[in-house]
Design a protein that fits this description.
The complex is a heterodimer of chains A (428) and B (841).
Chain A (H helix, E strand, L loop, with lengths): L2 H20 L16 H13 L21 E3 L18 E2 L10 E2 L3 E3 L9 H14 L3 E2 L16 E5 L8 H6 L2 E5 L10 E3 L6 H7 L7 E3 L9 H14 L4 E7 L4 H11 L3 E5 L20 H14 L7 E5 L5 H10 L3 E4 L1 H6 L31 H26 L14 E3 L3
Parallel strand pairs in A: 4-13, 5-6, 6-7, 7-10, 10-11, 11-12, 12-13
Antiparallel strand pairs in A: 1-14, 2-3, 8-9
Chain B lengths: L1 H18 L17 E12 L1 H9 L9 E8 L1 H4 L3 H6 L1 E7 L5 H8 L4 E9 L17 E9 L1 H11 L6 H20 L8 E5 L4 E6 L3 H7 L6 E9 L16 E2 L3 E7 L4 H10 L9 H15 L4 H8 L4 H6 L2 H14 L8 E7 L11 E7 L8 E5 L5 E5 L2 H13 L10 E3 L11 E8 L14 E7 L16 H20 L4 H16 L9 H17 L11 E4 L15 E5 L11 H10 L4 E8 L16 E7 L9 E8 L12 E6 L15 E4 L16 E4 L22 E4 L2 E3 L5 E3 L17 E5 L13 E4 L3 H18 L3 H4 L1 E2 L2 E2 L2 H4 E6 L6
Parallel strand pairs in B: 18-19, 19-20, 20-21, 21-22, 22-23, 23-24, 24-25, 25-26, 26-29
Antiparallel strand pairs in B: 1-8, 1-14, 2-7, 2-8, 3-5, 3-6, 4-5, 9-10, 10-11, 11-12, 12-16, 13-14, 13-15, 16-17, 27-28, 29-33, 30-33, 31-32
Helix pairs in contact in B: 2-8, 2-14, 9-10, 10-11, 11-13, 15-16, 15-17, 16-17
Classes of the chains: A alpha/beta (428), B alpha/beta (841).
């Protein structure tokens, strides 16, 4: 069999399996999922990515079974007669720049794509995310590791990430994007920097990062140039000098003093404060770190939102949450807790067939071709197919968000920000 | 005796806490802050506060206007209206009155009856000579009481506190300390009402602070013309937005010292716990207050020498510990066992002004102290200047030091606006200990007692180990040889300048020659380099100012400044653009860096920029493909210079600061001096030549093919995670010569080519070429690297860069290859460090 045949056969099987399992035509595989990402949530995500609609076969698609956080929160919906009519389409767009000066950038839905680097994921998956972002009217982040030429057609959708390894960061890549994201820390592994193990550092990845093929790459923690809030301001001023028009996003994890960090970033000039809680990350993040270091995102959102309000600067900044946001419902709850919107990573991988098997750090560990740089495995995702599935997932989420808003009597997702009063905590 | 005093003090403070209902209090930090702008100065002659102004103004971008302060030590008796004796012997209790109604009550409860008051000086903001009150929060009135503890009150206190066995001086100190603690507890508690608090209480020491910037303290309280031997100043950068009182601003007072802090340590809570065990409780809840409590505890309560205090705060670790002599190792081990859990962890840098306790009649002098953390995570620069007014300086940035010197030079107080020696401390090291003390003390044969009798002082700078730091060549001004050399130089400068009055080629030649005099380490044997540089800089400045303005039509050299900068838009490009940097802001849309971007976009190919005052990001934003654009920088260039450079050439005619050449991709960077921390972080390419040293963390995470010649050395962490391929087939490398040029311009090896304990750690590519003919580098400095054979191919690779280095800095390759008078082969002189063979997974 030629390589093309091998790929075709594998892709055919993958697609068939995603479709059948997603529709619930087979028993739920026993080894699939965990308490946060339950098997049903995974299958429901596959199904939405195929149909563009929420499941109608009774599959749970809103919450997991973690026993806490989003899984215990619910909305206090209005009685049916007071809800907004079904033909009313609440506005889902959110602003990414709430400061009086600078470029106004609104995105059509309250989410954009999280940083996944070339090297950690395949180029085809990156292109698929870019295509989906363009069709949806939102952004996606390059992650750390450069800007492959294949992404240049999508530069209006791209967020250039500057992370602590500075891989692939040049004036050119900074100037190419409308938004520049500083990754100070990742909620899945705060204080540990980044790691791309040797198996994934192919010649092409090494070329992009200008490093040595097959040698593991470490991004340090923290930025060696930033050890204080005034260093942080200088860091932002630097990139503002290189690209004065860029919106600046500051991604931090959620330590206990995350509120102080957030307000410091605001005063340093950030347009977007991106809080990354402890429940995100792929299988490449060390197990011991995930869920064990950073604060969960739910309390962090409230803490930061309230502090920014008390400082009188909440209206000047876009607060974005990530790290364990799985569903449209999680997004809506995060917004009610005080975020303006969310960043999504894992759910987009699920849309193209991720099974949450957590073998992401290995060169040939990803059997569906997402977190790999292997030339064969990388072909499993056709960019058009991937983009369609990602877009479908969000189309389904948009239906759900509009439904939620109508049920709360709200005409815009912006009206939901910080409405903790609309949430209730469900006891066991 | 010391142990007894320690126990008694500890018990007495336990009682104090119980009385104050604070014994079991859990203290949480309510304020978070990080970096700040700090500056300190010690001088043999009293210095007016205005000389700090420029420095603090220039470093404003290190604060956010929510706290500023100064401390002064070694005050003027005349300015305070007291006798020398009162100034020297009395405690100076300075109380900030936030709530005017409590002033008399505070006086009644905490001054009268306890002290004999010799004099009161009241500082009312806005009433000084140039006082201003255009501040968001009006600064408080400050009552400064010159007081002597009353014998009866002290005796009663000693009895009550169980401190009768203390020496009279130690007892008086504790009496004053506990009174201030009670005052703060009653009128200022971090969580309660804030009506008054003690700013400082030491002898001949005063702290003033407010909500605003550090320089505003000087103007608000009218300190511009007040003098002191030691000053420290601080801009604060608290993250909280609303700050309504200056209690959290720096400096914080111990008893005999004032401390400013740049950083934010990670273990505030554990240090607070540690201090609680000593019955010391912070009332202002910032880590700076905790820092001074800790310092004061170690010095006054434990009775430690400064060396022991430094070791307790910034312990010597790893390879540096092993390098210590056995006696020190034994002592430090004991100190670490006792204090490691109470030592601040994370980024911190302290500057203190102190007037330590002395027994009656004894004169120790005033101190300026800088202490850096073991990992050197905060920027810091030290400097020393000789001359009729000897100076020691410490600041976050070199430009902060130079701003003070420029101001003093303008007033004719010093010979040159640059110091004779600049250096960075190696935190927690075996080489300098990472801490330096400048002591200003009366010259012995003069008067006796503090205040100096006939007023003559000397300045002594020592490192942690008490070893004296001196200026190479002694900064020998005034010797006949020096005068001859200076006269010759003046003549050379004059003739250069004169040649520059004619043709365009003449001008170019003149600028090149004057620049060479400015940069050169050779050719003025016996002369002070700071004076040489001054003469050349003055001549260049006159030359630049003689050029026509940009809008005056085409000319080989045209000048522009901030006010006329818009003219660049309409001007026809061509010739050299000469930019006066003075009024350009340090960052932002109107910054000098953005102006350079515009000048290049308008078609200018060469820019000479003079009068720099620490402006940041120069050479950033030019974008890819900026080949053919050249930037010459004169004066104090700022942080992040050439960070992102992708084609252009940047030449710094002097020392540079921190974060140079981050992500540098392509182009050329030449620095005729030292570079600061975090140099070439994430660099990808380019050719870089540095005449002097780099501070900590150079070349971290560099990839691709950067090619670097560093003639001095680096403090530590050089080329960590270096990933620059194979240098023999297109990858990157750094040549580290480990030399300096002595005052006569001769090549002299540094004590070691590399003092750090971390070299090439985790590196997977690239190479380091060290000039190490004595084989001083050892395996234990490497972690991931290995010594590799230095071959003819290696020499062929680095030779062209050393030739260029010779052309730029007059450091001859022949000299580099000559060791103890013998010409050796390259392989005998240079050693190669390459990645160790990797284990395959």
């Amino acid at each position: 069999m030629s390589e093309g045949d091998v790929v075709a056969k594998h892709v055919e099987n993958l697609h068939r399996g995603l479709s059948a399992l997603g529709r619930g035509e087979h028993p739920i595989p026993e080894a699939l999922g965990n308490y946060r990402w339950t098997a049903e949530l995974i299958l429901a995500t596959w199904q939405q990515a195929e149909t563009g609609k929420p499941p109608t076969n009774g599959m749970e698609y809103k919450v997991g079974r973690s026993g806490g956080g989003f899984d215990r929160l619910a909305f206090k919906f209005l009685p049916p007669e007071r809800r907004l009519p079904a033909d009313l389409e609440p506005d889902l767009s959110i602003p990414l720049n709430r400061r009086p000066e600078g470029e106004r950038i609104d995105i059509a839905l309250p989410t954009y794509g999280g940083g996944m680097s070339f090297g950690s994921v395949s180029l085809n998956f990156m292109v698929a995310r870019c295509m989906a972002a363009r069709q949806l009217g939102t952004f996606t982040s390059t992650g750390e590791g450069g800007f492959p030429d294949a992404l240049l057609p999508y530069k209006d959708q791209l967020i250039t990430q500057i992370a602590t390894g500075m891989f692939g960061v040049r004036e050119e890549t900074i100037q190419a994007a409308r938004i520049v994201e500083f990754k100070y820390a990742q909620g899945a592994k705060p204080g540990l920097g980044g790691h791309l193990l040797s198996d994934k550092v192919t010649a092409e990845v090494a070329r992009m990062r200008e490093s040595v093929p097959w040698a593991s790459l470490y991004s340090p923690f923290p930025f060696h140039s930033v050890y204080s809030v005034e260093d942080h301001k200088k860091h932002l001023d630097w990139v503002r000098t290189i690209h004065p028009k860029a919106l600046l996003s500051v991604k931090v994890s959620t330590p206990t003093d995350v509120d102080m960090v957030a307000v410091g970033s605001y005063y340093a000039g950030a347009h977007i404060l991106h809080l990354d809680g402890g429940y995100g990350g792929t299988g490449a993040a060390p197990e011991v770190a995930k869920k064990n270091i950073a604060m969960p995102i739910e309390p962090a959102i409230g803490k930061v939102h309230r502090y920014l309000v008390s400082e009188g600067v909440r209206e000047q900044v876009t607060l974005i949450a990530s790290g364990g946001i799985r569903t449209a419902w999680d997004v809506a709850k995060a917004i009610a807790l005080g975020a303006d919107g969310c960043v999504i990573g894992t759910a987009e991988m699920l849309a193209v067939g991720c099974t949450h098997c957590a073998n992401c750090e290995r060169g040939r560990g990803c059997q569906v071709g997402i977190t790999t740089t292997d030339p064969l495995l990388s072909q499993f995702i056709d960019p058009d197919w991937g983009a369609r599935r990602i877009r479908n997932l969000y189309e389904s989420w948009k239906l759900q968000w509009r439904d939620i808003l109508r049920s709360l009597g709200l005409r815009s997702i912006r009206e939901l920000v910080g409405r903790r009063d609309l949430l209730l905590y469900r006891d066991r | 005796m010391a142990a007894d005093a320690y126990e008694r003090l500890r018990e007495a403070r336990g009682r104090l806490l119980r009385e104050s209902d604070l014994a079991l209090r859990q203290s949480g930090k309510t304020e978070a802050e990080g970096g700040c702008g700090v500056v300190g100065l010690a001088s043999t002659t009293p210095i007016e506060g205005r000389h700090l102004l420029a420095s603090l103004c220039q470093m404003k971008n290190r604060g956010n206007g929510k706290g500023g302060g100064v401390a002064m030590v070694g005050l003027s008796a005349r300015e305070f209206g007291v006798s020398e004796r009162v100034l020297a012997d009395d405690y100076l209790l300075a109380v900030a009155i936030l709530e005017p109604r409590v002033a008399t009550e505070v006086e009644k409860n905490h001054v009268e009856g306890l002290f004999d008051v010799d004099h009161v000086k009241t500082f009312r903001p806005g009433r000084g000579a140039t006082g201003r009150t255009d501040l968001p929060v009006p600064p408080p009135d400050v009552h400064a009481y010159f007081v002597r503890p009353r014998a009866t009150a002290v005796a009663a206190f000693a009895e009550r506190a169980g401190l009768t066995s203390l020496s009279p001086a130690a007892l008086a100190d504790e009496f004053v300390y506990q009174n201030s603690f009670r005052l703060n507890r009653a009128y200022y508690a971090s969580l309660g009402e804030k009506r008054a608090f003690v700013l400082s209480q030491g002898r001949n020491l005063l702290i003033l602070k407010l909500v605003g910037y550090g320089d505003q303290v000087l103007t608000a309280y009218g300190l511009e013309d007040m003098t002191a031997h030691v000053w420290i100043g601080h801009h604060r950068y608290p993250t909280k937005g609303r700050v309504w009182h200056p209690g959290g601003a720096h400096p914080f007072a111990g008893l005999h010292e004032a401390l400013v802090h740049n950083g934010d340590f990670a273990n505030y809570h554990s240090i607070t716990k540690y201090l609680q065990q000593q019955h010391l409780v912070p009332l202002f809840l910032t880590d700076t207050e905790v820092s001074v409590l800790l310092f004061e505890y170690l010095r006054r309560t434990c009775g430690y020498s400064l060396e022991r205090v430094f070791e307790s705060l910034a312990p010597t670790t790893e390879r540096d510990f092993e390098q210590l002599p056995a006696e020190r190792r034994a002592l430090y081990k004991r100190l670490q066992l006792a204090h490691l859990h109470g030592s601040p962890d994370g980024p911190w840098f302290f500057i203190l002004a102190a007037n330590p306790r002395r027994e009656a009649g004894e004169a120790t002098g005033f101190e300026l102290i800088g202490i850096t953390d073991t990992s050197m995570l905060r920027p810091q620069v030290f400097a020393l200047q000789a001359g009729s007014c000897e100076l020691g300086l410490i600041a976050s940035e070199k430009q902060g030091i130079d701003a003070v010197l420029r101001s003093l030079h303008r007033d004719g107080r010093i010979d040159a606006p640059e110091a004779d020696l600049y250096w960075n401390a190696r935190g927690g090291s075996s080489t300098d200990g990472g801490a330096f003390v400048f002591t200003v003390r009366p010259v012995a044969e003069g008067g006796k007692g503090a205040g100096g009798g006939n007023g003559r002082y000397e300045l002594v700078c020592t490192n942690k180990f008490g070893e004296r730091v001196s200026i190479p060549g002694g900064g020998a001004a005034g010797t006949p040889e020096a005068r001859v050399a200076e006269t010759a130089l003046a003549e050379r400068v004059r003739s250069c300048e004169a040649r520059g009055k004619g043709s365009a080629e003449g001008v170019a030649k003149s600028i090149a020659e004057l620049t060479r005099i400015l940069d050169s380490r050779r050719g003025t044997p016996g002369g002070r380099r700071s004076v040489v540089r001054l003469r050349a800089e003055e001549a260049l400045e006159r030359t630049f100012r003689s050029f026509p303005r940009l809008d005056a039509g085409l000319a080989p050299y045209r000048r522009i400044d901030y006010a006329s900068r818009a003219a660049v838009g309409a001007a026809s490009p061509g010739g050299t653009l000469v930019v006066d940097a003075r009024d350009f802001p340090p960052e932002g849309d109107d910054s000098l860096a953005r102006f350079f971007v515009e000048a290049r976009a308008r078609g200018f190919r060469e820019v000479l920029c003079h009068g720099l005052l620490g402006q940041r990001f120069l050479g950033c934003g030019l974008g890819a493909g900026s080949q053919g654009f050249t930037l010459h920088l004169y004066g104090n260039s700022g942080d992040y210079l050439a960070s992102g450079l992708d084609g252009a050439t940047v030449v710094v005619h002097g020392s540079a600061q921190d974060q140079l050449g981050n992500i540098l991709k392509c182009g050329r960077l030449v620095v005729h001096g030292d570079v600061g921390q975090c140099f070439l972080y994430g660099a990808k390419g380019g050719e870089v030549y540095i005449l002097g040293n780099a501070a900590g963390r150079p070349l971290i995470n560099a990839v691709g093919a950067p090619r670097v010649v560093l003639n001095g050395t680096a403090l530590d962490y050089l080329a960590e995670s270096f990933m620059a391929g194979d240098p023999l087939s297109g990858g990157g490398f750094a040549v580290v010569n480990g030399i300096e040029l002595d005052p006569d311009g001769e090549v002299r090896p540094l004590p070691t080519p590399y003092p750090g304990g971390n070299l090439f750690s985790l590196a997977s590519g690239g190479a380091l070429y060290f000039r190490d003919p004595r084989k001083q580098l050892s395996e234990d400095q490497l972690n991931g690297g290995a010594f590799a054979a230095f071959t003819a191919a290696d020499w062929d690779l680095i030779r062209p860069y050393l030739d260029e280095n010779e052309r730029l800095f007059e450091i001859r390759v022949e000299e580099l290859l000559t060791v103890d008078g013998r010409r050796l082969s390259p392989a005998e002189v240079y050693r190669k460090i390459a990645p160790a063979r990797r284990k395959r997974h």
